[in-house]
Design goal:
alpha/beta; 5 helices; Calcineurin-like phosphoesterase superfamily protein; five-stranded mixed β-sheet; Purple Acid Phosphatase, chain A, domain 2; 21% strand
Length: 187
């Protein structure tokens, strides 16, 4: 059985102007916050792993703690550029890092493992990108055009109907890319 691993970014809990800036379909800040919590918990179980790639909340620390206490899962935070409050409730996260590299066991991947790079910002190249490593990012709220030749995607909520996305969903998106290994033998 595959691990229940999810990726997401850019919730901006408590940030009323994000509704306008990102053209989110919410009538109010309260509606946005509640819908984001609902969609998170529809997907994420209490023991699932969630990698949040930054910009969790722009609300005050107490507000942010209250939101985090309502979210399912074991949350690992990659710092974004709006983490003032999240850093003040750091004990709610399994860890907080600027950047993270790891591998997921996957029999379909080369050598049975899929390497993944997590960073708040999109990169044009990254460690082992020429070997099929994925790069997941947030920050841009769907405003960057997808590069079908690169194994990178925006996992932010604005790109995925305001839901976190699973490892399997990321894998399906990566399979649609036209990326080829640059050092593969040419036929």
């Amino acid at each position: 059985m595959k691990p229940n691993i999810f990726f997401t970014a850019d919730h901006h809990f408590g940030h009323e102007n994000i509704i306008k800036f990102s053209e989110r379909p919410f009538e109010s800040l309260e509606q946005m916050n509640e819908e984001l919590i609902k969609r998170w918990n529809e997907r994420i179980g209490k023991d699932d792993t969630v990698y949040h790639l930054g910009d969790m909340s722009l609300g005050k620390p107490d507000f942010t703690k209250d939101i985090l206490d309502r979210l399912n899962g074991k949350i690992y935070l990659i710092k974004g550029n709006h983490e003032y409050s999240a850093l003040r409730v750091a004990d709610r996260f399994e860890w907080i890092k600027d950047y993270h590299e790891f591998s997921i066991e996957d029999e379909e991947a080369v050598h049975g493992k899929q390497k993944i790079i997590l960073f708040h910002y999109a990169m044009r190249t990254w460690n082992a990108s020429h070997h099929g490593t994925w790069q997941l990012y947030g920050h841009s709220h769907g405003t960057l055009p997808d590069d079908e030749m690169a194994l990178s995607i925006d996992v932010g909520v604005d790109c995925h109907n305001f839901y976190p996305i699973s490892y399997e969903e990321v894998k399906d998106l990566m399979k649609k890319k036209k990326w080829t290994p640059p050092f593969a033998p040419r036929s």
